[in-house]
Amino acid sequence: MKMFRKRFIPNETIDISKDEVLERNDERIVTRWLPIHPRDDVYCGMSFVYYKEGYKISKFYDKDGKLLYYYCDIIDYDYDEKDDAYTFIDLLVDVKFYPTGKVEYLDFDELQRAYDEKMIDGKMLLKAISTLNKVAEKIYNGSFESLCTY
């Protein structure tokens, strides 16, 4: 299986196929990974990609294995069956959720810029907002963290 992360800002597609796949089924793909670029604050992570639902939840850990935060990317995806390749398309808006319960909603400015500059169309804009709303509901009804178990 191949996996790619496509971003609009900056415009890039990165091969993430080296991430260790722990689970793959019709609902989700679970991976374990090291940061693409070494960081002082994050040592490793796990991602739970609910590609049909439109989000990827990543757990970021420090070098001692302590959970720092959850980071939820709102995504779309393409799947190439012939090459068994997923391209996860970052729809720009994100949610950062801390174990303390603090929640941050991020990158609305990038979403607007991508729409204004025609990097995304109205359908993608609405998908991003609608999916973000579903994720927010999961955070506030207490079901979010259960999505991040392996």
User: What is the subunit organization of this protein?
Assistant: single chain
Could you tell me the radius of gyration in angstroms? Answer: 15 Å
Q: Report the order of strands and helices.
A: EEEEEEEEEHH
State mean pLDDT (0 to 100 scale). Answer: 96
Query: What's the total count of β strands?
Result: 9
N→C terminal distance: 20 Å
Fraction of residues in helices? 10-25%
Number of helical elements: 2
**Beta-sheet strand percentage?**
35-45%
How would you sum up the global shape? globular
Question: Major β-sheet, in short?
Answer: 9 strands, mixed
Low-confidence segments, given as residue ranges, are none
Please tell me the total number of domains: 1
CATH fold field value: FomD barrel-like fold
* Secondary-structure class: alpha+beta
CATH architecture: Beta Barrel
CATH class assignment: Mainly Beta
CATH superfamily: FomD-like
